[in-house]
Specification:
Blueprint lengths: L1 E6 L4 H12 L3 E7 L11 E4 L13 E4 L5 H4 L2 H21 L4 E5 L11 H14 L5 E6 L3 E2 L7 H13 L13 E2 H14 L4 E5 H4 L3
Parallel strand pairs: 1-2, 1-4, 2-3, 4-5, 5-6, 6-9, 7-8
Helix pairs in contact: 1-6, 3-4
Length: about 210
């Protein structure tokens, strides 16, 4: 049986991950890393504030990391980087020391450590650092704009979603990866990848996530 951590458990994708792992009989225990109550019913999920709260005798096999914010919501570039880089690397360090085999993380379409865009540069730097940490299996998913029922309203995201919905039929071939994608589909792909990929680094672009 497998035991998993979900970081960012109250976010758009995190909630979907909890639903899927609750229904997946191959997972015995789920630890939701969050300071807020969950909006879904659970029977094998335990809420924790820090990974160190997990009993030392419980072997964690997989970490699903759905941590992420926006520069606007965080309030500054430094605050954004704290969540989207520092906190994730801190979790990965803990996971490596704890002997976790698989680390599954949400990055972003266009992630590039050399990008002039701060958001994409941070995501690229995160990917580069994770690749050096020596996980048996590292799975990086790069979704386009995530859609779903958020609790908070994001005007920029709403506008982007509207524009992409209009352009959606035109995004074909190499442009297909720029189509928006449901958070539930990203979560489904993350679980499927974690259950079936072994012993390598896997980078999955947004259009590939939609086939799971």
């Amino acid at each position: 049986m497998k035991n998993a951590i979900i970081a960012g458990a109250t976010g758009l994708t995190g909630i979907e991950l909890i639903k899927l792992l609750e229904a997946d009989t191959t997972y015995n225990n789920i630890f939701a890393l969050t300071r807020r109550a969950l909006s879904v019913s659970t029977h094998k999920t335990t809420l924790i504030n820090q990974p160190i709260e997990i009993p030392s005798e419980t072997k964690i096999t997989t970490v699903f990391c759905a941590l992420g914010t926006t520069i606007k919501k965080a309030g500054s570039k430094d605050a954004f980087r704290l969540v989207d880089y520092d906190m994730i690397i801190e979790l990965a360090d803990w996971a490596k020391q704890r002997g976790v085999i698989k680390f599954v993380v949400i990055s972003s379409l266009g992630a590039n450590a050399k990008s002039s865009n701060f958001y994409l540069k941070t995501k690229g730097q995160l990917e580069s650092r994770l690749k050096t940490m020596g996980f048996n299996t590292l799975i990086i998913v790069r979704p386009s704009l995530l859609t779903g029922n958020r609790h908070e309203f994001r005007i920029g995201e709403k506008l982007s979603k509207t524009i992409l919905s209009i352009l959606h039929p035109l995004l074909l071939g190499k442009l297909k990866k720029y189509r928006s994608i449901e958070a539930s589909q990203v979560a489904k792909a993350m679980v499927e990848l974690a259950n079936n990929k072994e012993n390598d680094i896997f980078i999955i672009e947004s259009d590939q996530l939609s086939i799971f």
